[in-house]
């Protein structure tokens, strides 16, 4: 004999069973592992990775100019923007990638692993995509934190991994566009219980909030107004000697004695009519030029400052060098990769490429490159050589 309460219960169980067979993927893995979450996170990652990749290629071009390309000097603050975007989008990709991996991980465990040859190839492309993505984010963050737990040269490894990853991303986007569009277009199914939709929305909102928090915590390295919430910013505009952060201090570069030596001379030689040897007083006696220019570090922080000193083009003219010359700039610093930099023709001739003697209306602080340092428009920070001792004209 079936009583009234039992009938309701049986109907309820039947209803649930029917719903389970209809729900398919969403039900098999739970609401947070279904295609809609994967699609939304995938699109967000597609945007952040693409911006990160494009700005990263620009950074590489600025630092490693091919022979056929002269990195432009204008707009003067371009590199400040692109490198800020590079680091910020990279940081925002961390929560997005972690969430995406968590949403799709049940698929990695599916058996059989491939349904066809094409499907096998698409899945194989996930290895360089996931591996490359994790490597890029990890090595980028470690570099910003100046932590080098590896033997390779960071920029080269980061650069080549980026090409491999972006190649795999193109394959992945090609294979997934149809699924993504379908998953986003499909209206939330009536048979999905309301709580399920809310679960997913809460989850995605949480991931979005995490990405937003990371952006705010990083952007203060560039935007001074965000400094107070920017716990992840390694350097902040306005903080440091003469109101400017320092990357490598004079003591770390081992240049204190050489920089303070009264016998210091800046040498201009190479393809010149007259070799020059100038003391700081000689440089101060030359026509001075001022410019407002940022230091924009590859690590993502940047800060604008007022610089004053001698134009490189005036020095070239005084030495009788060709106005279209390229110039190698060398530092008093003996060792280290950033003890020299190159000025291409445009940079050497630019009216704002300066050998600075003053920073924010004071004689240059030794940590900012006293007695004289290079500063030019739209140059990566690593190329703004401090403690300059020699210009070699080519
Ligand atoms: N000689 C020398 N110049 C250098 C460096 C260096 O290590 N050695 N670091 C560069 C880097 S990475 C940056 S971001 C800027 C920072 O300049 P600042 O310390 O005056 O802010 O200096 C650049 N000039
Ligand atoms: Mo830097």
Q: If you had to describe this structure to a student in words, what would you say it looks like?
A:
The protein is of the alpha+beta class and about 400 residues long. The chain is built from 13 helices and ten strands. The chain has helices at about 5-25, 25-30, 35-65, 80-110, 115-125, 125-145, 155-185, 195-220, 250-255, 255-260, 280-285, 310-320, 345-350; strands at about 265-270, 275-280, 290-295, 300-310, 325-330, 340-345, 355-360, 360-365, 375, 390-394. The strands form two sheets. Strands 2-1-10-5-6 form a five-stranded mixed sheet. Strand 3 and strand 4 (about 300-310) form a beta hairpin. The radius of gyration is 28 Å and the shape is elongated. About 35% of the residues are buried. The mean pLDDT is about 90. The structure holds ligand MTE and molybdenum atom. The ligand Nc1nc2c(c(=O)[nH]1)N[C@H]1C(S)=C(S)[C@@H](COP(=O)(O)O)O[C@H]1N2 binds near residues 248 and 386.
Question: What labels describe this entry?
Answer:
10 strands, 394 residues, 50% helix, binds molybdenum atom, binds the ligand Nc1nc2c(c(=O)[nH]1)N[C@H]1C(S)=C(S)[C@@H](COP(=O)(O)O)O[C@H]1N2, alpha+beta, five-stranded antiparallel β-sheet, five-stranded mixed β-sheet, single chain
